[in-house]
Amino acid sequence: MGNYRQRMMAAGCLEVLVNKxxxxxxxxPVKKAxxxxxxxxxxxxxGQSTVKSEKDRETMLLEVQKREPDLHLLDELMTATFSQRRxxxxxxxxxxxxxxxxxxxxxxxxxxxxxxxxIVTKDLLESFLDGLDALVPGVLQMYGEAAASGRRVRLSSxxxxxxxxxxxxxxxxxxxxxxxxxxxxxxxxxxxxxxxHGETLDVLMSGMQVGLLIGHEGPLHDAFPLxxxxxxxxxxxxxILHDLGDVSTGFAMLLGAIYCLNLxxxxxxxxxxxxxQRVVMNIKPDQCSARIHGLRNKMLRYHM
Length: 304
Fold this sequence. Notes:
alpha+beta; 14 helices; 2 domains; single chain
């Protein structure tokens, strides 16, 4: 395989060249993240030259500025320019602000889902919610046992929220927000609660490289807000997507943005995101780490 990759690199294969590249100021090579991308760095489609892709991108810039853009036209243009966009994001590693200036159409719930589907060939929101709903009863039971044994005291406050309002949305939120607690991970720089009348957004987003802001009204007396009015997606201390209706949709879009923008999983929650990828989304489930493999096996007894 080493000789094969050398031949591919000599032939100018972009994916091999990108993975061989050295980071600035770092001797470690840039390796492709093991997230199961089927179209990690695709070749341009037949008949789609660089000049035509650039014209399509400029057409998108004009269309996005309209009060009522043509969504079907944007879908077609985003599909046609997929290869160019991936080569820019992966090859140049630009700041998110630069990506947003060049590809503003990408930063919407519709287009993030479509881009994720192009990369992984899975429906983002449907796959995420279906996989999550199948796991909710078993995970909540697992949380209850861990809280009762005293190993994860913080999970008690998460589960107590469900006694006040036991809705499907709150069950999903309890599973997702309790996952870092169960895995003993620090989510303070990735998931933050935002009081509508509290601190300014600049203060709240300080130090957030990638994460979620969960908006609620008034002081928060529970582990998570039972009445969420807005969920925003934050990358590099900037909001790139907002007005997401609930916590589970916010997590799905966060996972989609990580794929679409070629981001690494946050180090402080790497096992939580691996669980979302390999267990909830069922993407490359056979390549999970020993910790997630043990957790998945432990959950099997709750389905028997």
